Amino acid sequence: YDPCCAYPCENQGICLSEANRNYTCDCTGTGYYGSNCEIPTWSTMIKTKLKPDPEWLHTFLTSNSWLWAILNRIPFIHKRLMTYVYLSRGDMVDSPPTYESDHSYITLNAYFNESYYARTLPPVPEHCPTPMGVKGPKEYPDVDELIKKVFMRREFIPEPHDTNVLFQYYAQHFTHQFFRTDYKKGPQLTKGTGGVDVSNIYGLTEQDRRALRSGVDGKLRTQKINGEDFPPYLKDVPGISMDYPPHIPIPENGKFALGHPFFALLPGLFAYATIWVREHNRVCDELVKLHPSWDDERIYHTARLIIVGEVIKITIEDYVQHLSQYKLKLTFEPELTHGTRFQYHNRIHAEFNHLYHWHPLIPDSLNVSGTDYAIMDMAYSTAPVFKHGLDEFIHAMVNSRAGALTNRNHAQVLYPVLKKVLENGRELRFQGVNAYRRRFGMVPFTSFEDMTGETELAAILEELYGDIDAVEYYVGLLAERPGPSITPLTMVNIGGPWSVKGLLANPICSPRYWKPSTFGGEEGFNIIKTASLEKLFCLNMKGSCEGISFKVP
Ligand SMILES: COC(=O)[C@@H](C)c1ccc(-c2ccccc2)c(F)c1
User: Fold this and answer.
1) Which ipTM score applies to this complex?
2) What's the CA angle centered on 72, arms 68 and 77, to 5 degrees?
């Protein structure tokens, strides 16, 4: 078999198989040399000595609040730290992308064929002895056995940092702008554009975007229901298609035209869609006051640029801040990347999509003003929002605990979704979780106990996989012992680079965009610089916005 199946090249060396079962490792640019790129150069040795251990660094970043309270207030230190976060995370994402899912070696397609999700690590070569190359069982473990033993919720495990359902729906609403798998064609393909393009609010195609606009003052179409602004009914917006399943009877006044075909699925997504439409129209009102001579087209485009800025600001300073549990204050300061090696383009990676399947956050039910709604009661229904009012629904999300992002915490009703994720990971031939830990500078798990931090699940995984290096990517991410962040440590350290790169590589962060005139002047620029989760809701809810945050009060 191909000697590269054994992954003999270390430290990101590239394996080339030769005649009669021979191979060579290409160590170019790795900082290592030797037949397996195992010997560090002097400069690598020094760098390795100086580089803080990721586990230690993570503990340091999530503790010592008193020290961080001081460091966060010293601007020249804090800016150096944020610059380090942006550049070090950006460096870890290959740009231009090197791989896609249909070839286990570098191709021009990885860069020029943008309908592929990019790949950080190439797929396991075909015709290797085992699915992971040479290690582990000859066949993947049975997926149903794996789901029952490792993923299904016995009883609801609440998220230990008091994360609420508002956070869970933020994650789902936000990520669906760039996770747009083309299911008809295959899990390796995406219809997305590669980043924070707010297509979840405005639509993915120019046709959809045009259909959702009112044509007046740059605003998006809305309608009054119970005296409040909501997105338009699907029946009133010709040309837009939403993913309503044919078998579920939904009244015409229960179907809405939203920026993403999937957002009709859950009322939490509908609530965010409504808030963002209101925010866009509010920004339009501000811009019309400032620039009465501007036409609909200019107001719309300028407001959309401001909304992109608000989304990135809130995602870094509220969402990632909560997710990471960092005591370092995370700030959105794109000017720190200007004049550096940082590059302003991004591609979404298939592995990022898989990592972000955070269904354990979904509780078994949601209580809204005394009424309990099971997950299925809410599927394809906006009824809870209109029965209790949007404000009540939002407060219910704030006050309800999300589930812990760990193993054995997937709600039963999500079994088919989880099965699809695991099967797609196999179809895409993902390398194991340890291969990704090595790729992102982490020490690979040395044993099953080292991964899970306990013995019972470790024994089950040992029986299923035999070798720690054979544990599948998504399985390892959720089997890992809980850490100080919302997600286990591996998810932070490999999701971090894709996330930070995706946020800071946005065109609005580049020197030619990041200036007042792009956003309608200082006032528009300030809307971005002062945006926050709380402000987003307080400016767009009818009643009290008391206590809006990603934590249960
Ligand atoms: C590596 O850590 C970091 O750079 C911090 C700022 C950070 C950044 C991003 C994430 C993150 C990880 C997974 C999905 C979404 C965001 C994260 F968990 C931590």
Assistant:
1) 0.97
2) 105
